[in-house]
Amino acid sequence: MLSYQHAFHAGNLADVHKHALLATALARLTDKPKPLSYLETHAGRGLYDIASAEARRTGEAQAGIARALAEGWLPAAHPLRAALQAVRARHGPGAYPGSPLIAGHFMRPGDAARLAELHPAEYAALATNAPWADLRHEDGFAMANALLPPTPRRGLLLIDPSYEVKADYDRLPGWVDRMARKWNVGMIALWYPILADARHAAMADALAAAHPEALRSEVGFPPARPGHGMVGSGMFVINPPYGLADEAARLAAIYSGL
Fold first, then answer.
1. Number of domains in the chain
2. Does residue 57 register a pLDDT over 90?
3. Has 246 been labeled as part of a binding site?
4. Disulfide engineering: 206 pairs with which of 173, 190, 217, 234, CB 3.0-4.6 Å?
């Protein structure tokens, strides 16, 4: 259950999709001066080195964020590009921010970040990389269940499990429904992999049926290597901010040409 290591996959095509939407959503939230809460159930280590041996071994960052930058997928004013540039200015040209550091780029005085990570090594790294946040070495689902609705009341919850536990696909629709009822004004964003066997489909369909006004953004891409099961990336967003659907459509058009 704790074997997944994102260092091998950071900056891949799924990350570009997920993080472009996340950064856009956070930029929209911070357009207003009102404080916000950012919560994350599976934060990881928060910062990755895409020049590392792990990243070079898979080549996924080269096919993902490196290609996105080379081919202009992220315009100069894009929120993800701004967050990436800020992180690289501090940590070097091979740095790639996970979602906690992307969120950190947008956090202001008065905002609150609460991040959960259960993996001991990942949590230890997160404590170094995101000392400004309220960090929880615990199950992220339990954290969110205990803290929602948060203070400040407006904000975003990112749910980004590894899906190593196959039961996650079955449990997530009901769990997301409960969190949405507890925090009816919050933005709730669930990332999920699109696999060749389509095991995500029943989960995503159940969520869409329960939340017809939500944004369901799915993109496809070639497998990272022969036999690799992930062939796409999905984000399901309850209470999406204005403009997020446009960003999802823009990304869909880019990915359709891969």
1. 1
2. no
3. no
4. 173
